[in-house]
User: Which sequence fits this backbone?
């Protein structure tokens, strides 16, 4: 990088730049529930796979009953980051998490923390719908059964399906195999399955990337309803989606070492979604959200 | 189409020319290529014919030779060296069936357990787990007579010292076919996509709950198929049984933990080695009996696979 370029870059990074034409409209978030209660506090968090860094220097506060979006180009470690939040990364033997990750003030990676207990409270919805090869009913009932939840199972199942906004479509065929549903229905079933165990947080790793726009719309509506009761973290490639549903957005980029041997993700900017999409502080965020790069 | 303007003469020429070009391009395969193609297909067909011819010859021979002796006496009567008209396979058949029942009882828990360990728990980056994997593949290829020697040295005599009893034969056969079950069960477990395990773990299920409630139920058809194929192999094995005491000639029904026993293939072998023609006929009839049992078992395996196999 030449000296001139460096100075231009600095001047655009200091936040004084104006952003006249942004193509993406954000909804008004004035009515969105504001909460100062922190669900997650990430302090200098980094994740390595073996010797290769995946994300570094992550500092992030995720708030209660908010939808927090993680956006950024491929390979920036969004999925790695979200998988730290319910310790799904423990399943990768070479993964190593450093730094601090507090969940309601408790160290999530503390020595006495059982990852199984963590995942009971912090549910996850995956990129590709992954219903179990069982009936719709058993898909929902699986979680409550293994956790030994008390109460009428029929009621638990119906409640979860209602809150997953799929009850009306499946109430007459609860005993049918879930594989017979459409992709969008399967994904809502997976969300309902997650809700059935009454988690505190729902993590969504690109929940709509395999779905058509109509199914995507239904899931976004569902997310807006769910945030009345749950904190949601969503990874998405779709910036319109982040703009439409989220209260706060973190933008990550891929950093490279000088010799391009190592690459990892870092947070460039984290703020209220409206600010990220209309008046970002960092030039790189602006370029990304306006579609100039990435 | 009717309302469109009819093509002019020039356009018609152009269309005809284009068609001719396309037709020429599509039909331009060189003669030599066609010949080579047909030759190759012919060779492949001949190879399958040869394989089938062997099977057909075996079946035909068995049926022609054995037909005179085919009757229910094969199942109900004990063998005899004098009265060939009323000789059968009763003790051998019972011996085989009881032995197979023991074999299933041993290979299902052991095979599935080993497969679960290797697929779900073993860290394949550790060298000892890789050595175990490699050796299971090797074990499946060890000649069965070696297992007979092992059974004799380890189970019949040696440390276990069970004597020449049916249960010792069953243990030897179980050891022989265990690698087949492990390999089949591993494949069935591996075919369950990781997303199912993730979905289960993300709900707060433990690893054991995930395996027990999600992975194993989805793997059952594959495991069952593997078990049936392994049992078919065990049913047909003769060599190891000869070493661990499947006595060549038993007239009394066998007891599992006491006394002499025999098995179908051993009895067939015994009849076949006798010079008299009547015994040859009996041996052929015994082969038919065993083929019927084997085909029935394999059909169940195929039916299971088609009926319950999960498409992901």
Assistant:
């Amino acid at each position: 990088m030449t000296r001139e370029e460096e100075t231009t870059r600095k001047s655009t990074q200091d936040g004084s730049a104006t952003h006249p034409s942004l193509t993406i409209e954000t909804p008004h978030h004035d009515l969105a529930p504001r909460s100062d209660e922190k669900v997650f506090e990430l302090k200098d968090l980094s994740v390595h796979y073996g010797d290769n860094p995946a994300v570094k220097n992550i500092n992030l506060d995720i708030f209660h009953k908010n939808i927090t979006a993680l956006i950024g180009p491929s390979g920036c470690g969004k999925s790695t980051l979200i998988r730290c939040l319910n310790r799904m990364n423990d399943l990768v033997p070479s993964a190593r998490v450093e730094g601090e990750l507090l969940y309601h003030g408790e160290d999530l990676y503390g020595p006495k923390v059982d990852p199984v207990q963590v995942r009971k409270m912090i549910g996850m919805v995956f990129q590709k719908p992954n219903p179990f090869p069982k009936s719709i009913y058993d898909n929902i009932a699986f979680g409550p059964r293994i956790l030994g939840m008390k109460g009428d199972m029929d009621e638990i199942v119906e409640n979860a399906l209602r809150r997953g906004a799929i009850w009306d479509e499946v109430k007459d065929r609860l005993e049918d195999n879930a594989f017979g549903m459409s992709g969008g229905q399967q994904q809502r079933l997976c969300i309902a399955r997650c809700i059935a165990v009454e988690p505190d947080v729902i993590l969504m790793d690109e929940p709509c990337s395999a779905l058509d726009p109509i199914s995507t719309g239904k899931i976004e509506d569902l997310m807006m309803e769910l945030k009345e009761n749950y904190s949601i973290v969503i990874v998405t490639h779709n910036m319109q989606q982040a703009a439409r549903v989220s209260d706060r957005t973190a933008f990550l980029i891929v950093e490279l070492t000088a010799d391009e041997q190592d690459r990892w993700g870092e947070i460039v900017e984290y703020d209220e979604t409206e600010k990220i999409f209309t008046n970002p502080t960092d030039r790189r965020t602006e370029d990304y959200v306006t579609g100039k790069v990435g | 189409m009717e309302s469109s303007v009819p093509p002019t003469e020039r356009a018609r020429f152009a269309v005809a020319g284009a068609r001719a070009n396309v037709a020429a391009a599509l039909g331009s395969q060189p003669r030599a290529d066609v010949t080579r193609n047909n030759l190759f297909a012919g060779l492949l067909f001949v190879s399958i014919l040869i394989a089938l011819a062997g099977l057909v010859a075996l079946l035909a021979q068995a049926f022609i030779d054995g037909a005179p002796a085919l009757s229910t006496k094969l199942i109900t009567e004990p063998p005899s060296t004098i009265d060939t008209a009323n000789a059968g396979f009763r003790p051998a058949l019972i011996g085989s069936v009881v032995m197979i029942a023991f074999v299933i009882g041993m290979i299902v828990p052991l095979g599935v357990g080993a497969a679960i360990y290797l697929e779900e728990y073993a860290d394949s980056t550790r060298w000892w787990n890789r050595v175990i994997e490699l050796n299971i593949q090797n074990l499946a290829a060890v000649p069965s007579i070696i297992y007979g020697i092992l059974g004799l040295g380890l189970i019949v005599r040696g440390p276990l010292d069970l004597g020449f009893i049916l249960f010792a034969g069953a243990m030897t056969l179980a050891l022989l076919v265990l690698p087949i079950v492990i390999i089949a069960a591993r494949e069935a477990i591996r075919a369950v996509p990781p997303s199912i395990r993730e979905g289960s773990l993300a709900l707060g299920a433990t690893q054991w709950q995930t395996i027990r409630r999600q992975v194993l139920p989805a793997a059952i058809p594959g495991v069952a198929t593997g078990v049936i194929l392994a049992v078919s192999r065990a049913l047909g094995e003769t060599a190891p049984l000869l070493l661990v005491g499947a006595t060549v000639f038993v007239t009394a029904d066998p007891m599992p933990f006491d006394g002499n026993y025999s098995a179908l293939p051993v009895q067939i072998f015994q009849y076949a080695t006798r010079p008299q023609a009547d015994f040859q006929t009996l041996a052929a009839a015994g082969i038919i009996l065993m083929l019927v049992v084997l085909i029935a078992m394999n059909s169940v395996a195929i039916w299971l696979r088609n009926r319950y196999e999960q498409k992901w």
